[in-house]
Amino acid sequence: MNLIEARALEVSYGEIRAVRGVDLAVGRGELVCLIGANGAGKTTTLKALCGMLPARAGVINYDGAPVTGRPAHELVRRGIVLVPEGRGIFARLTVLENLQLGAYARRDAAVAPDLERVYDLFPRLAERRRQPAGTLSGGEQQMLAIGRALMSRPRLLLLDEPSMGLAPLLVQKIGDVIRRISREGVTLLLVEQNARLALAISDRGYVMESGRVTLADSAQALLSNPQVQAAYLGG
Ligand code: ATP
């Protein structure tokens, strides 16, 4: 059963029709990626799914019920959490404070075990928990952004370009971490310009071009699709 699905989704910025009738779905426990060139509409799609941008047309269903038009703060409480491109961490707060902020929307008090889980996933963050987040490297800041999102116990994690600007070794590491989060039961939708990484770790993928989904298939099939290879995998 699908945890989230969009049908005929359209999103605009004024006159600019960034998303033009997109159908996509992510099943419970699935790891799905959305790939495509710069400006294809990937980020806009993610923002619409988490309520940060309004749908101009179409429907979004989450957990079996329509959520079209619901505000982002409500969707966060219901488990839809976005890790934005550019990370959005608080540079002057410590690593620990950033992680604690991730749990702000929760009503339970059991934050300590989740902190341990994040530190287990990212030992670097444990070592640096008292440091201002602004002193971390780009890769560590990306880990912190993902760790902060995990602190809110997401059911659906939306990751926007987690590999952006990272050195190759760290790209591999982020990929490993995303798989591990997936194995622990979180449903994931991953937007990536690094199509090779995204397809290597995902179950299924969608290709977006000019605001539309042009291909939808298993990640394996997309990796061996000559069209995808030519356009997104460097031949
Ligand atoms: P990128 O990898 O660069 O983020 P993308 O596939 O995520 O690309 P979007 O960021 O969703 O693409 O952009 C889709 C279209 O919407 C583009 O034509 C872009 O110029 C336009 N767009 C994005 N954000 C805005 C905005 N805030 N105001 C106006 N137009 C925007």
UniProtKB/TrEMBL annotation:
One of its GO terms (molecular function) is branched-chain amino acid transmembrane transporter activity. It comes from the Bacteria. Transmembrane segments: none annotated. SUPFAM superfamilies: P-loop containing nucleoside triphosphate hydrolases. Keywords: Amino-acid transport, ATP-binding, Nucleotide-binding, Transport. The keyword ATP-binding applies. PROSITE patterns: ABC_TRANSPORTER_1, ABC_TRANSPORTER_2. One of its GO terms (biological process) is L-amino acid transport. Pfam families: ABC_tran. Residues 4-235 form the ABC transporter domain. Belongs to the ABC transporter superfamily. This is ABC transporter ATP-binding protein. It comes from Candidatus Muproteobacteria bacterium RIFCSPHIGHO2_01_FULL_65_16.
